[in-house]
Fold:
Amino acid sequence: MEPKKESTFDCFCRRKWPFLIGLLLIFSAAVSIYGSGLNYFYDIDEPKYARAVYEMVSAGNPLAPMFDGIPRMEKPPLTYWVMYPFAWLASYDGFGGNALFLLRLPAVICSILMVLGTALIGRRLFGPGTGLLAGLILQSSVLFKFMSVMMKVDVVFACTMTWIIYFYLKRFLGDKSVRTASAGTILTALGMLAKGPCVFLPMAGYALAVGIRANQRRLDESGKPVTFFSSLSFNGLAHALRQEHKILLLWLIVGSIPFLLWLGAVQSSSGINYLSGMLGDLSHNTSATGSKFLYRLNRFDPYFDTLTSIFFPWGAYLFGTANDIWEKIKKRHDEKLIFMVCVFLIYLLVFTLFFKLKAKRYMLPMLPLLSILISNWLLNACRDKTYRNLFAVGFGWICLIAGLFSYRSFKFSSVSVNLSDRVPVGQYMELMLPFFIALCCFLVVFLVVSLMQRERPVLHIIVGALAITGVMPFYYQTLPSYTSLAENRPYPILGKALIDRVAEVAEGETLILHRPDFVKKFPDMLYYIKNISQDGKPSYSLGYKAGPAEFIQALSAPGTAGEVFCREHADADKYPAYNFFRNTGFNDAVLLLDPEEYPEFEAYLKIMPPKISNRIKVEKIELLTIKWVVINVYLVHWEPEDEFSVQNNG
Structure:
């Protein structure tokens, strides 16, 4: 039986729903937008999306995503499309000033919509109070906050998944209206345009839940005992699927049509087969060496650290939540919990067993479901001994994670800013101290409200969410920033600083050369190449699989860039970069090398005749990568003959 206070809280939330949901969305907007004005990129993927949508707007072609003038085939186009209007606004200022803030706004909007969807799903499942607090839990979690300001596919896909689950749930609970079916279809189509077939995982969860429910009803009618496991009869599942085949086919087939239309349109307009590129990327992400079964079995790790640690602080209560769900479904069928569990487990198992990359961002679409389940447990679970013990375990886990984080940060002078990477903070540890003090204050506040949780669970969630949210501004103040080559903290950040230096060294139209792997490591550089354009049109860099001799030849004769590009790409005439290299009258060139590539070039330079080697100037620049690691980048410049002669005569 639910405590009386929770029932009173639900009644209050139902009466004040419009006001409270509006208050939640205002809070979500304020928290999500903080940090979106960072004048640099948060991770290695952000500049890829920023550069791709910049090229879309510059070329006026929203159908074909390009990166450095070459098709970007890894993801479908929805993320670029939602960024397109904001990139169009940024183009009026030449993608300067607040361009990155504008490009991050779609992610902020999607995160707010996720909070709204979470509240509505929670309301439909467990009541308005649970829904509102689930939205608060989601918005105050560390992983969600990090992702809500990043311009990338993950938050866009997670937003579509949240609303897909909402309308699938409505259908599952008996709403057979055309409106619900149509909304589910439209959102499935959007999800397909965001991340391809991954969008069908909630549909598989829906189908499994429908089958389990049908088996449960059949067992009830026959007078047999009903448990979760007895409801997994294959015959019953197949029969239920036959009954639901029309809606499943509608979501599957009609939901795929916009994606197929886009593939056809981009193929006919540009001659580029994006489907083959996406299939190749999928194969790369899901392939494994050796025995696939043994490989996946050995690496089986269902994102335990992500769900309990990075989903900080609320993930610590998953221990109690999981136990509560297990106790309920093993004794008696609860169709609401069954639906949630089926959707979550299918998604978790697919991404655990079939994707070799274990990325924390992959769990973002499941955070709304986890927030709802945790909110329901904290609000409505029976306050017995098991609850008290598991709540204590959860709070202890929170303290342990915070303690380990603080110890590691002080011990090794590093802190995570990219969900996984360590930032060296020894150079500006004084900026970290306010953050650590704020984190300690959060733990004290959280301890106080946790002691009151049994009698005042609502207060525990609200104050805890506000407390962890209050820590986040201190965290963002510790991130490295970039102003100029002379004014930065603690080093110039690679992409912007490197292009700024190229602009100082080179003259006129400048060809930027590098090996292909250079851009894979430092994609942020490509976003800022636009800053050296002489006519305001997109500039491109030339990735060249060549040795030192070929690079020196290209440096001395940059006008051959078009021929070089043709040798590198069989379908060069289909790519915008080819027209740029062929039609641009380059009068200067620079070569960029990383520390692994430079020794080969340096060794070759030593055996070159002085007449040539003396004209090659090498500058070593100490920079921060986008992962905040200090490295040396080598800028190689071919000195023009007239300038070289003047220096020799002097």
Remarks:
- Residues 99-126 form the longest helix (28 residues).
- The longest strand covers residues 616-624.
- Residues 93 and 285 are 38 Å apart (CA to CA).
